[in-house]
Amino acid sequence: MKKRVDLPEKKYEGYIFDLDGTLVDSMPLHYKAWRKALARAGAPDSVFREDEFYSCGGKSANDVVSFLNGRYGLVMDAASTAADKRRIYLEMLEEEGMEPIHEVVEFVRSLGDAPKAIATGSAIPGASRTLAAAGLSGLFDVILTPEDVENGKPAPDMFLKAAELLGAAPGRCVVFEDAVPGIKAAAAAGMDCVQVRRASLA
């Protein structure tokens, strides 16, 4: 099996993790939910291919719809389409369950009481149920979503807020991320970053 991550040997004051595609293999499920929600909203099938999906990693669902409207000249309602996507994802999660990315989760468990946070582009209901489905509830001191900050990824706001809540200096934190927007956000926050390599959606 292909190795997904090169784990750091350096010790940090704070450990910050993205959720989808970093702690859990949820990206294929999110993508299926997006395809279904966008079809319901009247988007053509050519909209939101795999590369676009990953380019939006860390964005809120509302921001994703706004991005697609702007790129393709669509007029989908951002709030209702995003809400539909979240509902579809939760239904699929209930039916299909969720698999953790074991290399990363084993590392999280090895950290013991070290300060740990999640900074995710998902809304809190989806994030909480994803963690529960993967058996990861209770492992983290802090869970942050785009609703908790002014600007989502690739802005550094979520990671800086996570460091503050963990009581750690930003320069002494490490971020685990799978998507380019999150990697850029970690760099903007002045934090080391460990990339979790993604599996194919196919």
Automatic annotation (TrEMBL):
GO molecular function: sugar-phosphatase activity
Protein name from the UniProt record: HAD family phosphatase
Lineage: Bacteria, Pseudomonadati, Verrucomicrobiota, Verrucomicrobiia, Verrucomicrobiales
